[in-house]
């Protein structure tokens, strides 16, 4: 929809304001997330009004909407969205993705990106040359697939949408996504063209070889013309087509260089033929044909290598079964499509099959291979009551599973989204590369022209001058620059995913290598997160079972691991869990409720103090301190304002935790633990694991403050946690790392997610960050060095056009090949 035709609504959703809209003005309505009061409205209005070009702003708190009129010549939607984000809020956006065909270098990606960014209602656009993919963020309901595809085609390329649930379409096989066959078919077609091109080029090149061995025979000129012409205009049509599209849009890319260089060699040969009058003359048909053949071969190798770099996504997609055995009461098994399943359905999985959905085992026992999902190489035992994830391979047992997540909500779908999100991002250094790429081809053309003039002025004649200029044109390679960063990023994040490390974006990858301090949560991170009750200690004559019953009643309303342990004890002892009223929770301190008219408070000393409840006597306090000194968690219970006893719980330290801390220490990284437990418990765990320090009685907000404090001291901080209460600290840290067994909130907040609850993966996440950045640096060095060295050599006539073309083809292949070495990376191993 053309934004000029939109009406500008009033705050109450009524009629348009009636003000005339100038031709350069646009009206937009933005859905704002995060506003909670009138001051929020004021902050948003102030942030937007401060932008140059904004004529009118109207923010409606009830609708969570902002209506904005602005000057399109001075401002765009992306800048408005950024201003709202800087004010602490966010604009609701829809995400669209497209596959792009026809890009040949980084300049092509930049041109598409520029075309998409210029679309009204697009807030951001990113085009990944290595993946041949465009991802855009737009205002919901404002952008259609057809409009985006038209914009891409107007820029000279072909696009297909990825937004029609392509991942869920299939034929019932467990193979890769059907859409993945297109790139393979493209390579197959290119291989046929390469074979034809090689056959036609071979005689032209061979005559040059045998002349070096003293054989004086030379192909007739008309034969050379007949062999070179199909290569130049049929096989090489793709370069002319790409060059014309670029020039038509006042841009330049690799195709321009190839088309200019090969055309110069081809038509110089035609010119020499016309002047020869039957006498022998030097022709350059072998140069033009060899350049096209070699560059085509290089592009095919490049495509294959790029597919190898992005293999992780295809492997994850291949884990999606298309069909399931649904259990229908009274009818038995029925073969159905995955899309038809709903939460609560029952499915049966036979030995050796992949699990079709996330769910809970209701009957049967088996061992599951979850290696491609979590990176865990050993089969994991699953029994009734255990959660399982779709895509895992069933072992020798039969399982009946209750569906708990389908479609985009499954673990596998979320993993694929996270990996794709990371792989389509851009490194900060890519901005520099983009600026260089934007001027690269014009600069090379200028150097080639200068070479031509220089050789002519030096008296070498027109023919030698043209040959030197052609060498300059065909050796320069913007492809290597464009591929240096994205291929390393794709390969690195893919390898991380295979090892159970999900990196959400490049910012996390970029920051992880700088980390010098890691803050760990305790429960569920350094410990197993499944505490068990050790002691129940009533006082003042209260019955033990009554203490457990009252405590379990209140804790049944909580999802905290400690609460679940107490409820499990009550159920194991076949107690009836009582109903509660007036439940209240105090973050980081405890919970309170009423049971049968009795007021029950459960938590820490601070909770009891706030309620004016007298603390335990000295003897009890000493016993509690002894328990905490041995690493046990103690919760205090008060009934009707009187201290009634305490319960101790034990949460075992994870087997890999001590080695994980040692690995970080070996890398020069400090480790700190922040826990809501008492200081005695925190100190005990810190001593056991060799932590730099362990802090107890830390509230969720205190964790975020500790992160900020360390950052102000100049430290680069990673926060590792698994719970909702860790989310503020995960967001505040330079790098947030969520344990995969934790909550969705933690995983959505963190930049890195560990798919298995293994603290040893923290150092592995830092390692893959370092390895990926190293590859990017290597790629950029060689890409720049290649052009810096190669172009002058060609300009001074050291390289012939054919050799220059081969070098150009191999430069991008070498960059992608270097990135592919990241596929061998394994957590805990060497790159």
List keywords for this structure.
six-stranded antiparallel beta sheet, 831 residues, elongated, Alpha-Beta Plaits, alpha+beta, seven-stranded mixed beta sheet, 28 helices, 6 domains
Walk me through the structure:
- It is a single chain.
- The protein is an alpha+beta fold and 831 residues long.
- The protein has 6 domains: 3-91, Alpha-Beta Plaits, CATH 3.30.70; 94-164, Alpha-Beta Plaits; 184-311 and 425-490 and 773-824, no CATH class; 322-410, Calcium-transporting ATPase, cytoplasmic transduction domain A, CATH 2.70.150; 501-527 and 653-755, Rossmann fold (3-Layer(aba) Sandwich); 532-650, Calcium-transporting ATPase, cytoplasmic domain N (3-Layer(aba) Sandwich).
- It contains 28 helices and 30 strands.
- The strands form 6 sheets. Strands 18-30-29-28-19-26-27 form a 7-stranded mixed sheet, with helices on both faces. The chain has a 6-stranded antiparallel sheet with strand order 10-9-11-17-12-15, with no helix packed on it.
- β29, α26 (744-749) and β30 form a beta-alpha-beta unit.
- α6 (221-235) packs antiparallel against α8 (254-276), α8 (254-276) runs antiparallel to α9 and α13 packs antiparallel against α15 (478-498).
- The longest helix is centred in the C-terminal third of the chain and has 36 residues, at 760-795.
- The chain is elongated, with a radius of gyration of 33 Å.
- 47% of the residues are buried.
């Amino acid at each position: 929809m053309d934004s000029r035709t939109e009406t500008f609504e009033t705050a109450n959703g009524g009629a348009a304001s009636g003000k005339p809209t100038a031709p350069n003005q646009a009206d937009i309505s933005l859905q704002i997330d995060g506003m909670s009061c009138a001051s929020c409205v004021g902050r948003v209005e102030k942030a937007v009004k401060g932008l140059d070009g904004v004529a009118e702003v109207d923010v409606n708190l009830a609708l969570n909407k902002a209506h904005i009129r602005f000057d399109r010549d001075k401002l765009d939607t992306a800048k408005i969205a950024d201003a709202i984000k800087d004010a602490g809020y966010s604009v609701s956006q829809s995400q669209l993705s497209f596959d792009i065909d026809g890009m040949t270098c980084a300049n092509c990606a930049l041109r598409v990106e520029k075309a998409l960014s210029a679309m009204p209602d697009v807030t951001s656009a990113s085009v990944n040359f290595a993946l041949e993919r465009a991802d855009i963020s737009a205002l919901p309901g404002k952008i259609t697939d057809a409009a985006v595809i038209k914009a891409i085609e107007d820029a000279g390329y072909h696009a297909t949408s990825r937004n029609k649930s392509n991942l869920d379409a299939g034929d019932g096989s467990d193979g890769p996504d059907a859409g993945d066959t297109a790139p393979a078919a493209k390579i197959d077609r290119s291989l046929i063209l390469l074979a034809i091109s090689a056959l036609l080029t071979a005689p032209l090149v061979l005559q040059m070889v045998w002349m070096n061995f003293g054989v004086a025979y030379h192909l007739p000129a008309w034969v050379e013309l007949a062999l070179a012409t199909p290569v130049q205009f049929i096989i090489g049509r793709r370069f002319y087509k790409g060059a014309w599209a670029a020039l038509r849009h006042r841009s330049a890319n690799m195709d321009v260089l190839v088309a200019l260089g090969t055309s110069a060699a081809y038509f110089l040969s035609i010119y020499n033929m016309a002047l020869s009058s039957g006498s022998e003359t030097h022709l350059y048909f072998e140069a033009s044909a060899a350049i096209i053949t070699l560059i085509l071969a290089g592009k095919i190798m490049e495509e294959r290598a790029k597919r190898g770099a992005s293999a992780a996504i295809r492997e994850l997609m291949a884990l999606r079964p298309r069909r399931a055995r649904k259990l229908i009461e009274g009818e038995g098994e029925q073969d159905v499509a995955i899309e038809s399943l709903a939460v609560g359905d029952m499915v049966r999985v036979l030995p050796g099959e992949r699990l079709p959905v996330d769910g809970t085992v209701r009957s049967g026992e088996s061992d599951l291979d979850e290696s491609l999902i979590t990176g865990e190489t050993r089969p994991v035992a699953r029994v009734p009551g255990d959660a399982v994830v779709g895509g895992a391979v069933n072992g020798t047992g039969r399982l009946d599973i209750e569906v708990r997540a389908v479609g985009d909500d499954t673990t596998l779908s979320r993993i694929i989204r996270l990996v794709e999100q990371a792989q389509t991002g851009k490194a900060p250094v890519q901005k520099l590369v983009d600026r260089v790429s934007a001027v690269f081809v014009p600069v090379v053309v200028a150097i080639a022209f200068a070479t031509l003039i220089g050789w002519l002025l030096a008296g070498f004649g027109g023919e030698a001058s043209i040959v030197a200029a052609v060498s300059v044109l065909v050796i320069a390679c913007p492809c290597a620059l464009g591929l240096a960063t994205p291929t390393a990023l794709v390969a690195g994040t893919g390898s991380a995913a295979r090892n159970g490390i999900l990196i959400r974006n490049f910012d996390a990858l970029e920051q992880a290598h700088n980390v010098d301090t890691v803050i760990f949560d305790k429960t569920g991170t350094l410990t197993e997160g499944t505490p068990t009750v050790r002691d129940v200690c009533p006082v003042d004559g209260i019955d033990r079972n009554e203490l457990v019953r009252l405590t379990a009643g209140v804790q049944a309303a909580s999802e905290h691991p400690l609460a679940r342990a107490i409820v499990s004890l009550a159920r194991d002892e076949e107690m009836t869990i009582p109903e509660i009223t007036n439940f209240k929770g105090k973050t980081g301190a405890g919970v309170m409720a009423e049971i049968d008219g009795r007021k029950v408070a459960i938590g820490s000393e601070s909770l009891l103090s706030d309620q004016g409840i007298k603390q335990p006597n000295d003897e009890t306090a000493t016993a509690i301190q002894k328990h905490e000194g041995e690493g046990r968690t103690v919760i205090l219970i008060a009934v009707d304002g009187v201290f009634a006893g305490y319960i101790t719980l034990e949460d075992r330290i994870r087997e890999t935790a001590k080695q994980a801390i040692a690995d970080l220490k070996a890398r020069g990284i400090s480790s700190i633990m922040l826990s809501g437990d008492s200081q005695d418990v925190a100190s005990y765990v810190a001593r056991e694991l060799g932590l730099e320090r362990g802090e107890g009685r830390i509230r969720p907000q205190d964790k975020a403050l500790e992160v900020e404090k360390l950052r102000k001291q100049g430290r680069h901080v990673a926060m590792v946690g698994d719970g909702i209460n860790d989310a503020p600290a995960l967001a505040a840290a330079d790098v947030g790392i969520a344990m995969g067994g934790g909550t969705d909130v933690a995983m959505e907040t963190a930049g890195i997610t560990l798919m298995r609850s293994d603290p040893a993966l923290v150092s592995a996440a830092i390692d893959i960050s370092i390895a990926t950045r190293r590859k990017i640096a290597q790629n950029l060095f060689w890409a720049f060095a290649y052009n810096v060295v190669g172009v002058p050599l060609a300009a001074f006539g050291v390289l012939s056009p054919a050799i220059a073309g081969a070098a150009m083809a191999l430069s991008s292949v070498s960059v992608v090949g270097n990135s592919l070495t990241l596929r061998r990376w394994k957590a805990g191993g060497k790159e």
